[in-house]
Amino acid sequence: MSATVVSAPGKVLLVGGYLILDPKYSGIVVSTSSRFYSVVSPASTPGVITVNSPQFINAVWKYSINPNGAIEEDTSTFNANSFVHLALINTLTLAANLKGPEVTDALVKTGLQIHILGGNDFYSQRITLEKRGLSPTLENLNKIPPFTPLEIPISQVNKTGLGSSAALITSLTAALLVHFGVIARESITGDGHEDSRRLAHNLAQFVHCLAQGKVGSGFDVSAAVFGSQIYTRFDSRVIQPLLDGSRFAKVEGLYQILAATNSGWTQKVSPLRLPPHVRLLLADVAVGSDTPSLVGNVLKWRQANPEVANDLWTSLDEENQEFGRTLKSLSAEWEKNTALYEQVANYLSSMQQVQWEANPELPKEEKSLIDRFVKLRTISENIRAKMREMGETSGVPIEPPQQTKLLDDCLAVTGVIAGGVPGAGGYDAIWLLVFDPPRKHEKIPTPAACVEILWGRREEKDVTPLSTEESVTKGIQVEELYKVPGLQQAISAARN
Ligand SMILES: Nc1ncnc2c1ncn2[C@@H]1O[C@H](COP(=O)(O)OP(=O)(O)OP(=O)(O)O)[C@@H](O)[C@H]1O
Ligand SMILES: C[C@@](O)(CCOP(=O)(O)O)CC(=O)O
To answer: What are the entry keywords (predicted)?
Structure first.
């Protein structure tokens, strides 16, 4: 049997932070071109599963499989990885539930070798660039080989907020489901296999909650499975019975709860793509934030001030929904009249937003398309203002003044459409939507290049771009090992 490779993308929550914790509201999440890859191969180590994350030091974990199917971590290896261990226990239990004893028999007979690799953007590459004497630019990031070793243990890595654990668990659980034939390879991507994807989602969602020790909204796992979307959360009561017992024990009744047909899974996923010629640009800002404490404090504030909070959330939600409708309407305009759309995208990409409406002579169709881009900008600014208001009234730095200044500077750059702080906000990242002009002139820098110039000139030297863009493929994918640039090499290097 050859290797099974399944990848899952990272995420950026553009709008809907905090609100999506409540199923009354929704959020817009974009999945990223940066992916996690899990490579599962049969081994010649009877009864042993070896998991290797070659980007990190001391990142080899060994598990033994008893003939009764129990999976125990070999504690003589380095630091335990509960995310990996819980993914193995629950996926293999589910596989044995559905496929019978052949799953455990195969593991006892031959064992399993698993490699886990995350795209460079999941981890801050600031130090890697410094070591190579390179400045933090998109061009230089592309010079770093894929899956570059970070030369530190995982516990010391600086993450960039793309949702490494959700992408890791989604790719690992789905790779094992495919490897053991619980879901067919073609059902990962093809249409008409919604039940397989839903099972993969429900399993990953549960394992991620178990591993993180908390139940968040789950937008990260949903984006990892289904791709960019408008997300409304699941009701956490569906997995509560699975969370009540001991974390590492084998769970009874796993399939009944995780089955695609279980109507207790109430999440809603409405697929969405960024409009054509609009590029997502992300920056990692040097100061980190502690998301759980931001969330805890905002929720405390909401509980203590229900009226103020609900009024603010209702009006914020209206803006968030309008943001989604405007994105969809722009894609529809491209479908309707691609030539006109591209002409407008070119025109606007060469000027600052304040000039977009300056020409009164433009034909009506052009004007109306420009108005939609202006609307996208206006709504995103309204959202920022309301997120700041929430931050000020709750005393939580959702868009702290340093981020406000950085975003305002970016939004004044030629061809920048919208921006904000992703997810829970804080000090550690910003997102921008910029025109990616259809016709590029060598001598005129693109909006992304202009933004980079601004970041490079900052005295604080605190901003590193991420090379990630929106994922062009939706959610989880079965991959061919040799077709993913650098994957085979990263695995071979780990073996040497
Ligand atoms: N390459 C990897 N190999 C194995 N385990 C990993 C890898 N990357 C991350 N992990 C697991 O994920 C854990 C980090 O999860 P955590 O929930 O703290 O991060 P996160 O919220 O997903 O971070 P971010 O959104 O910034 O990427 C690590 O402690 C480790 O167990
Ligand atoms: C605040 C919250 O809504 C978003 C957190 O997003 P992020 O991890 O900061 O990207 C929490 C959640 O949805 O689980």
So the answer is: Kinase, Transferase
Q: Considering its fold, how many domains does the chain have in total?
A: 2
**d(Cα 87, Cα 193) in Å, to the nearest integer?**
23
Element (H, E) at 453: helix 447-457
Q: What SS3 state is found at 464?
A: strand
Contact 319, 382 (CB under 8 A): yes
Question: Confidence class of residue 495 from pLDDT cuts 50, 70 and 90?
Answer: low
Strand-strand pairing, 48-52 and 112-118: parallel
Q: Is 168 exposed, middle or buried (0-12, 13-18, 19+ CB in 10 A)?
A: buried
Q: What is the pLDDT of residues 434-460, one digit of tens each?
A: 999 887 777 888 999 999 999 999 887
Q: Are residues 449 and 338 in the same domain?
A: yes
Residue 230 phi, psi (nearest 5) = -95, 125
Measured in Å, residue 79 CA sits from the centre of ligand 1 at 14
255 shares its domain with 290: no
pLDDT in tens, 255-297: 999 999 999 999 999 999 999 999 999 999 976 556 668 999 9
CATH number of the domain where residue 429 is located? 3.30.70.890
Please identify which residue in the block is written with the tokens 């180590």. Answer: 45
Give me the count of residues in the chain. Answer: 496
Contact assessment for residue 167 and residue 160, using Cβ atoms and an 8 Å cutoff? no
> What is the residue range of 232's domain?
4-272+473-495
**Amino acid of residue 396:** V
Residues 488, 445, single domain; the answer is no
Looking from the CA of residue 13, the nearest atom of ligand 2 is 10
Provide the CATH number for the domain around residue 10. 3.30.230.10
Q: Are residues 322 and 223 in the same domain?
A: no
10 and 138 both lie in a single domain: yes
Q: Would you say the CB of residue 216 lies under 6 angstroms from ligand 2?
A: yes
Within this chain, do residues 156 and 300 fall inside the same structural domain, yes or no? no
Which long-range CB contacts under 8 A does 477-483 form with residues at least 24 apart? 477/6, 477/7, 477/8, 477/35, 477/188, 477/189, 478/4, 478/5, 478/6, 478/178, 478/185, 478/188, 478/189, 479/5, 479/6, 479/7, 479/37, 480/5, 481/3, 481/5, 481/39
* Contact in structure between 38 and 6 (CB atoms under 8 Å): yes
59-69 in b/e burial notation, b at 16+ Cβ within 10 A? Answer: bbbbbbbeeeb
Q: Exposed, middle or buried: residue 30 (CB in 10 Å: 0-12, 13-18, 19+)?
A: buried
Alpha-carbon span 67 to 44, nearest angstrom: 17
For the CA of 83, the closest atom of ligand 1 is 31
Q: Is 83 in the pocket of ligand 1 (CB under 6 A)?
A: yes
Q: Which residue has the tokens 């080989």?
A: 145
